[in-house]
Amino acid sequence: MSEVTRPTLSDALTERMLELIRTGGHRPGDRLPSTRELSQRFAVTTPTLREALRRLEATGAIEMRHGSGIYVGTDIERVVLPNPNMREMHAAQLLELLGARIVIEPPLAAMAAHNADPEELAPLKRVLEEAGRHLRGHDALLHDANMSFHRATARLAGNSVLHEVVDSLLTVHGPEQREILQIFDDRRRDYDEHLAILEAIEARDAAQAEERMRAHLVDVKTVIEHRLQSPLM
């Protein structure tokens, strides 16, 4: 029988910090007590406390601002988190991630078409307007707008866990997605496909929204497969 790993002091302190945030009613952006106050409160040394704080910061539960203090992080309520240690992806992993997006995002587009009311569609329209201003340059801004469109569509589906899954997948392969923009080299086509998805969602046509999102993502995956197979890329 394997020995059960005993929690360390840092493990216990991490849990107590999370309990402090939850029971104290703290929300993202709220300031927490100082390092000195926390050390005294939990009766631990500063190095031990800092180790726990680093763990929490790595998952986005807190944010440590130099010269300002400790704040509740924006990811405190997340169920799914991207790997903060991810550096480089192998080709097979990248294709699997794109395959996952093809499975997940089209049904979410259908759910968005079914659920979203006109006011909730405003963020989708705004990000596409932003993308339209950067079709002839400023690829970094165009990439951000494109990714915001996919995140906003997933959010409108109304399932917070699946929205976080999509957000995590986009975060994991952000650099590769920027490369796709360069290789695809048809920013207008990409933009028009996004517009078509939005039109289907606005029309509350769930089947069309799902099909157009799937076709769009299959296009992206095809480009990546071509790049990985071509010795010139």
TrEMBL record:
Keyword Transcription: yes
Protein name, as recorded: GntR family transcriptional repressor for pyruvate dehydrogenase complex
The keyword Repressor is assigned to this record: no
Single GO MF annotation: DNA binding
SMART domains recorded: FCD, HTH_GNTR
Domain HTH gntR-type, chain residue ranges per copy: 7-75
InterPro entries, A to Z: GntR_C (IPR011711), TF_FadR/GntR_C (IPR008920), Tscrpt_reg_HTH_GntR (IPR000524), WH-like_DNA-bd_sf (IPR036388), WH_DNA-bd_sf (IPR036390)
Keywords: DNA-binding, Pyruvate, Transcription, Transcription regulation
